[in-house]
Amino acid sequence: MKKRTPISEIMTKTVITLNHTDELETAERLFKTKKIRHIPVVSGDEIKGMLSYTDLLRISFADAVDEDDDSVDTVVYNMFTIEQVMAKNLVSVPSTTTIKEVAEILATKEFHALPVVDANKLVGIVTTTDLINYLIEQF
């Protein structure tokens, strides 16, 4: 296992994002259709927050809906905005951060995804799943 491998080697580079003005219904559809659990929230190129599927579950009955069902009950979603639900105080890392350093951050914090930001621009996202897949490849 290489000790100085940068996170850019394993991060997701084609990032699915939400605009901070999008609706929560849009977020749930993305979570379900793309089979992802974290979506950076942006305004232009600037990252404003991170929305997780768990954030939606906290305010809705989304977990009672069939994962394969594309219909969404929007009653609860109309009561909140993405900006009210998303995590705002983000920890981000540059793409040169080592995989080991990212693993240490994720192991000690209570979140499972980090935005990767270079020159104030979102260039990727790295998740605990990315780290696990990297470890699997090493064996």
From TrEMBL:
Family matches, as SMART domains: CBS
A Pfam family recorded for this sequence: CBS
Gene3D superfamilies found in the cross-reference section: CBS-domain
Keyword 4Fe-4S: no
Keyword Nuclease: no
Keywords assigned: CBS domain
InterPro entries, alphabetized: CBS_dom (IPR000644), CBS_dom_sf (IPR046342), Diverse_CBS-Domain (IPR051257)
Superkingdom as given in the UniProt entry: Bacteria
Domain CBS as annotated: residue spans: 11-67, 86-139
Protein name: CBS domain-containing protein
Source organism of this protein record: Bizionia echini
